[in-house]
Amino acid sequence: MKICRYQDTPDGPVKIGVVRGNRVHDVSSVADMLPDVRWPYPPGDLFITNLERLRPVMEDLAEKTPDVPVASVLLRNPVANPGKFLCGAGNHKIVLEMGGHPRRLGLLFKMTNAAAGPADGVTLRWPERTTFHEMEIAIVIGKQGTEIPASEALDYVAGYCIGLDMTMQGSEFPSFGKSFDTYGVMGPWLTTRDEIADPDNLSYCLKVNGEDRQVDSTANLVLGIAGLVEHAASVMTLYPGDVIFSGTLPRSTGPVAPGDVMHAAMEGLGEMTVQVRGGPGRKTPLDGMEPAETATG
To answer: May I ask which residue range the UniProt record assigns to the signal sequence (predicted)?
Structure first.
């Protein structure tokens, strides 16, 4: 199943959709089946937590409800309330050949305010600084677990999205540079795990303004999907809606600028177009310092 969150217009309500071919069916009424919760709210995304129970109802609704072209709607992040974003560090065979290993490097983190969908685009709040694109597979956790062995890890996965792990370059901590609003683009929808026979062998391509920037395969990751889930769960509890960005080939990342158009396509997961926009520029206590003092900061 392919599940999206979308709007018909920028001011309209966010709906839940099932995507079939190039059409999207409105199944928003399934949200009425979600349990009522009170503070303190349970960890995890409530929709993802209940996904398996909701799926047959969504299938039935998709048969009955009108559909509209996917191209006519605004696609938002398919995971409404991600609990945390984890990013695979150095998780590519090229890094392994250079002596690095993701298990030694650990994980990088991205604040969940960075969550965005294709229609949100990417806003470069500090356009005078360099921001790199990093296309990868995004793994959406489907149920709670910790100390999960790789042999059982896929049982904890709800599905996959295309991920754009945008990262501002500079002397700040990497997690800071990853955490600007819109720097965690996911889409075009959530493809459930059962639709992807081998997530460790998906080819993908990212174009910027029509030019190939990243052409690779998930087969070149050091830690595949199961290994990444095991790695993350070895140090923390994973909850439904948590997202693991897989990591990508370092030398294929590159800068984007306001006005650029990114087009990301991954085998089995679809494709999405993401606009890059400019922001207001840096406004911090460092403003007014001599350029030499701020050149790398």
So the answer is: none
In a domain, 92, yes or no: yes
| pLDDT score at 287 | 58
Q: Using CA atoms, how far apart are residues 111 and 85, in angstroms rounded to an integer?
A: 6
Domain ranges, residue 114:
82-282
Give every residue of the chain whose pLDDT is below 70, as ranges. Answer: 285-297
**Is 297 a member of any domain?**
no
Task: Judge whether 8 lies within some domain.
Answer: no
**Which residue in the block uniquely carries the two structure tokens 């890890």?**
153
pLDDT at 285: 66
* pLDDT given at position 8: 97
- Say if 64 falls within a structural domain: no
Q: What is the pLDDT of residue 293?
A: 44
d(CA 73, CA 8): 5
CATH number, residue 245: 3.90.850.10
pLDDT tens by residue, 257-293: 999 999 999 999 999 999 999 988 887 766 555 554 4
Separation of alpha carbons 17 and 189, rounded Å: 9
pTM across the whole model: 0.93
Of 170, 187, 177, give the one whose Cα is nearest residue 121. Answer: 187
- What per-residue confidence (pLDDT) applies to 267? 98
* Cis previous bond, 250, omega within 30: no
Number of domains in the chain: 1
